[in-house]
Amino acid sequence: MNTTLLENHLTHELELLICCSRTCINEKNLIRIQNLLQKPINWDYLLELAAYHKVLPLLFINLSKIESQAIPHNIFSTLQKYYYLNTQHSLLMASKLVNILNIFTENNIPVVPFKGPILATVAYGDISRRTFGDLDLLVHQEDFLKTKQVLINQGFEPYADSNEQEAAYLKSLNSQDEEAYLRSHWELHLINRKEQVTLDVHQGVLSKKFSLPYSSEWIWNDTIKINFAGKQILSFSAENLIIILCSQGSKDCWLYLNRVCDLAEVIHTYTDVNWEKVWQLAIELKMTIMLLLGLSLAHHILDASLPEFILQEIEINSLVKNLTSEFILQLTRPVADVTTQSQLKSALFHLKLIEQPWDKITYCFENLIVPTIADKSWIRLPKFLSFLYYFLRPVRLITNASIKSQNNRHLA
Fold first, then answer.
1. Are residues 267 and 232 part of one domain?
2. pTM of the prediction?
3. Which residues have a Cβ under 8 Å from the Cβ of 387 and sit 6 or more positions away?
4. Among 109, 178, 277, 291, which is disulfide-ready with 173 (CB 3.0 to 4.6 Å)?
């Protein structure tokens, strides 16, 4: 950890979690862990933190390497049980992914699986070291509709990842409306209830929230082949993966430590990254702030090694330095406070990362005015009145914000 930014901010529990949230523990961190174990630790709170930040497997693996009577038996047993269950789940999902990839091969659809078991394998070196739920796939834009139909024929069905009302709306669309919906969205959520597996099929991987390029051809032009479960599959290049992870972490406001872990582990694993290429790509995509923030967090929190010119870019960028400090302070807040982060706060954070003024305006329009599935499932209007959704969306957002505020006051 970079003590200049973290100094005096971390509790013993959070510092211990950060020290353990990596695959390789150097001597300095090992000594720090041993020293922390001699201090009073609220073990239940440590487990709560690790669960929220989705790093329980790493916490177990690293604590299991240390012989210390300070670790309560019941805590270690809980971690061990979770680790075994997570490993079992991960292996099951990996086998299901292989079966799904075979379907794509049979139908001659190029596909790049990412995140989930793939990221666990390429970045962490072991599928058991990372938690994941859905399986994520990238296909060409021209194959998006075909992919949906192929998977429907295999027992999958569309679903909304927020609520059943939205899922019902999706299922109610006629073929023409459904096609229009799919062409305007960068991902499709599918579920196979019999196989108990959910898929996120993407035609783009950079978040539309930031007005980033919709086309993913730059990714397809720079894929590599890796071995996964005895099968040669397409995967992202290290340079593209770094860009993508910074985009996804930014979309989620870097609320979870595992997002930083993913980036730090990729940097640790790929020692031959072409950093000039990464930087030029970030400039072309208008996401230099997103890139520098992600790399700054990986460096200051998890000691990720960066080239000197990237460190200099971070140092001269006051916004990135301020946001890095904000994130570290955010880590120290109680979990309950972080999980209730408002949509407004998330939006303000996103706006800071968008580099072009026009893109900031577009972001506000897309998020405040343009109707979503949630709006259309909230109130069903006949087609000739569909323009009213542009006025209903702000009303729904204000209503939801008011309800959440009242609920939070009652909980307090």
1. no
2. 0.88
3. none
4. 178
